[in-house]
Amino acid sequence: MKPTFLYWNFRALIAWVLALLAIAGFASSNPDFLQPGNLYALLQIFSPLVLVACGLGVVMLAGEFDISISGTFPLVALVSVKLSDSVGTPLAVLIAIALGIGFGLLNGWVTARFRIPSLAVTVGSMVLAIGIGYAIAGGQIVQMSDFDSGMALTQAVGGIFSLQSLIQLVLAALIILTLRATWLGRYVYAAGSDANRARASGMPVSFTVIAAFAISGLAVGLAGALQGVSLASGTAGPDDALLLQAATAAILGGISLNGGKGSLVGVVGAALLLAVLSNGLSFMGTTSATIQLVSGAILLAVVIVDKPLDRFTRRYIQSSTVSVA
């Protein structure tokens, strides 16, 4: 078994162990933590986070980054609400999802076509999305009259799930399957590892980058549209908290900041950890500001220890592989 394979599965294992330890810790401090009502609330936090984090993870594996999530997520939520009364909720959701994909395609095309760093491109598209949102909302909270659709999305299914969480979890699973079992996944890893070598070998690197951003746009579009309908309201402005948590989940889950290495399975574990911390701290009466502070501290800590942990884990796995051989 290759050391690289062992390494990235070890990073994913760390994320899952931390998530399970967090669950055990909150459950031991308060048995009600594992009651169906709280598990339902936990999945309502986890499902959009894991979906957006998986989409961002694909972009990072391709060697890029997507800051535009902060602007496109609230925009698609706003659009789904704004159009609901005029075209109907189902069509409004589809239009909002298409808008999310459109922003992803735009990000990918500009990045690939003009070889501009994706950080700069997605900052620009984030500002564009926020501006469009303010133009639509006019500084006001936009509401929709179709409350039935929101109630249907959030109604409990099987005790702990909702239709909203199930849809998001299914799409996240499809993204993981696409990355692990299709040619696109191989192209994403190759482009992120060494774009020039992949291009020289005949791989469609530009197409791969565009596809990666489109997947992120799809994830953000679906998650944002469903949130807008479930809340029956939307507003303009950035959603920095979601971007912060999605990036934390991707990095903590083992996605390399340099691209080409990592596993979305680890991202799922890290997203679960963040959702458990958010839910558990809220369950204990902690303020949302404190929860965001904890998320930011985790991201900073992960970035600081990433390279030392990388070196230690590689040495350990390589020595173990040699001793076994």
Can you count the helices? 13
- Total individual domains: 1
Q: What global shape is seen?
A: globular
CATH top level?
Mainly Alpha
Q: Over the alpha carbons, how many angstroms does the gyration radius reach?
A: 20 Å
Could you give the topology of this structure?
Layout: H1 3-29, H2 36-61, H3 69-87, H4 89-114, H5 118-137, E1 142-143, H6 147-154, E2 156-157, E3 161-162, H7 163-181, H8 183-193, H9 195-200, H10 205-231, E4 233-234, H11 240-252, H12 264-283, H13 288-324
Features:
single chain; 325 residues; mainly alpha; ABC transporter involved in vitamin B12 uptake, BtuC; two-stranded antiparallel ribbon; 13 helices; 4 strands
Can you give a write-up of this model?
The protein has 325 residues and is mostly helical. The chain has one domain: Orthogonal Bundle (ABC transporter involved in vitamin B12 uptake, BtuC), CATH 1.10.3470. The protein contains 13 helices and 4 strands. It has helices at residues 3-29, 36-61, 69-87, 89-114, 118-137, 147-154, 163-181, 183-193, 195-200, 205-231, 240-252, 264-283, 288-324, and strands at residues 142-143, 156-157, 161-162, 233-234. The strands form 2 sheets. It has a two-stranded antiparallel ribbon. The chain has a two-stranded antiparallel sheet with strand order 2-3. The chain starts with a helix and ends with a helix. The chain crosses the membrane at residues 39-58, 87-106, 118-137, 157-179, 207-229, 241-257, 264-283, 289-305. GO terms for molecular function: transmembrane transporter activity. Keywords: Cell inner membrane, Cell membrane, Membrane, Transmembrane, Transmembrane helix, Transport. InterPro entries: ABC_transp_permease (IPR001851).
